[in-house]
Amino acid sequence: MTLAPTDPAAPGDTGTRSVAAPPALPERTKSKLLEVIKACDCATAQTLADKLGVTVPAIRRHLQDLQDAGQLEVRTEKPGGRGRPQHVYVLTEAGEATFPKAYAALCLDVLSHVEQLFGEGAVMQVMDARRLELCTQLTPLLGQHTDLGHKLHALARALCEHGYAARAYQEGSQWYLAQRNCPAPAVAKHFPQLCQGELTLYRELLGVPVSRESRLSCGAAECRYKVG
To answer: What range(s) does the Winged helix DNA-binding domain occupy (predicted)?
Structure first.
């Protein structure tokens, strides 16, 4: 790369000048960058720099930051299937997750329509089907353990993978399971069958009495279950 000639040194100037780094994108612009990539058919560094009105070196730095965060990946593609291959940036699953999703609202709408069309019993049938599927998935996992504490910790780890922020702990000799997050609070508030299905699921998986002491959907800080 050829640098432009420097200006003559001013009186008292040593003649040494530093080359300024390309301007950085504001942090909020990284969100805009993700939006542009999502909407762009061929998100090359040059294309993105043009759309955001910044230099290519600046855009590359922020693309690398987003790659390091696991929100982007680079693919080598030919535009329109022809021409020279180009490095194209695409969103990863983590990148897609930064965009608002209306899953809870959709689920609430679907269950409301099911209830209106087929009655409350139909909603319970849907919840039962979900419970049976989860039970089938988790039974082999918990079946690896015979100790209640080990089973509870295994269940808590599985629930964390589903977004429940769960933990298993003891107070004295009593075991508890706590969930600090509800993946679908609006659904749980309108359809308590969801919470009842979870309680039934935990009883089936653990093979011991389980009782709920608090619920997030009722304003508590966590869903807390007394186990055993």
So the answer is: 33-107
214 lies in the same domain as 149: yes
The angle formed by the CA atoms of residues 128, 133 and 139, to the nearest 5 degrees, is 115
Which residue segment(s) compose the domain that 201 sits in? Answer: 103-227
Same domain, 145 and 191: yes
DSSP conformational letter for 15: S
Higher pLDDT, 25 or 218: 218
Domain end call among 96, 118, 147 = 96
pLDDT of residue 76: 85
Tens of pLDDT, residues 28-43 = 677 888 888 888 778 8
CB 62 within 8 A of CB 33: yes
In this prediction the pTM is: 0.56
Decide if 9 is inside a domain: no
117 found inside a domain: yes
Statement to judge: residues 116 and 84 lie in one domain: no
For the segment 76-99, the average pLDDT, to the nearest whole number, is: 78
Q: Which residues of 32-69 are buried (b: 16+ CB within 10 A; e: fewer)?
A: ebbebbeeeeebbbebbbebbebeeebbebbbeebeee
Q: Is residue 162 part of a domain?
A: yes
Rounded Cα distance between 92 and 96, Å, is 6
19 token code pair = 């080359």
**pLDDT at position 6:** 36
DSSP class of residue 81 equals G
Which of 96, 115, 148 is the last residue before a domain boundary? 96
Beta-strand ranges (E) seen in the chain are 72-77, 86-91, 166-171, 174-179, 210-214, 223-227
